[in-house]
Amino acid sequence: MTVRVDLNISLDGFATTTDQTPENPFGEDWGRLTEAYVATRTFRERVLHDTSGAGTTGVDDAYAQAYFADVAAEIMGAGMFGLHAHGDDPGWRGWWGEEPPFHVPVFVLTHRPRPSIEFANGTVFHFLEASPEEALARATDAASGGDVRIGGGPTTIRPFLKAGLVDRLHVAIAPILLGRGIRLWDELRGLEAGYTVTAETAESGTVHLTFAR
Amino acid sequence: MTVRVDLNISLDGFATTTDQTPENPFGEDWGRLTEAYVATRTFRERVLHDTSGAGTTGVDDAYAQAYFADVAAEIMGAGMFGLHAHGDDPGWRGWWGEEPPFHVPVFVLTHRPRPSIEFANGTVFHFLEASPEEALARATDAASGGDVRIGGGPTTIRPFLKAGLVDRLHVAIAPILLGRGIRLWDELRGLEAGYTVTAETAESGTVHLTFAR
């Protein structure tokens, strides 16, 4: 059982974008940050339900396949589920429509817990106020020996990294500079200790960097 | 003729360290940031004058060889020459002793110009107060068709990057998180426009990333 993190970041370290406007609710940066990942055949199949076989099949796609493999429970922050934007709506069911691409129990960390939401495809969102250690214990239990992913965003992930709870950190570094957003790497001096760090470059120019124990 | 930048940075983007103390005048971070570069055969020959043939000969060394090739003039900030620490000493001749590894004219940007310093090996330090464009014109003239390097530090380099004066930017990204220092990437949103970005991973785990026009 492995505790994993997988994130897309820019060369200047931004993992969450902050250029959203009412006219452009996702901003322009998010699409550029995730461009190589969204272009993969695996993303198109798993998230867009496009079974035409379209999409890239190189190094980026190999990481996209690994992204979905073996994860049996997920933890995410309230912002990633959409509670910062939609928390006042008791009917909010996340960004992903009726086919969320998780297929496993997802534990959403929030100071305002709400009833669980279950989907036909196996995705169940649970809401809890918990420390990283407590949330990981819940998710580990639910995963029954499978892997647990800390999904994001960076503000949620950092305490898990600092507490030494993450076994494998994979960052896909897009070769772009955003100059704004929320950084993954703040206050993580010395994180590399105890990990082996490897890197591989994809055809898209994305650098896949992995910290593994 | 190419205007070049070559820098060692950490994964969290720090190009200059700030952990110097009177007891440890270079700090502990600088050695870790430059470890893979200092280990190369080329660095040992060119900077340490070690002709024993010791040192690594892989990808890092190929970049170290390229570092020294074709550069016919260099521009650096006052801090890189040592004027922030030693500016009150009129006899200060730089950090590098009597064999500075440049062998070409070096233009040091400072608000307090001083007389030029010439070394037997071809290195000449000139001191000038100038805009990036003016300094580059001086260095280009001195280079007589050879390449010009903007040597550092990041605070000196950033205005040259912002002004679109750099043809090739090579960063050697050490797989470590320093958590402190001076960042290269601040306020460089969109720098990648107009460049092709490529990356290559060395045996040391260093990721060599190149922005080329």
TrEMBL record, chains A, B:
It comes from the Bacteria. Residues 2-187 form the Bacterial bifunctional deaminase-reductase C-terminal domain. This is Deaminase reductase. Pfam families: RibD_C. The lineage of its organism: Bacteria, Bacillati, Actinomycetota, Actinomycetes, Micrococcales.
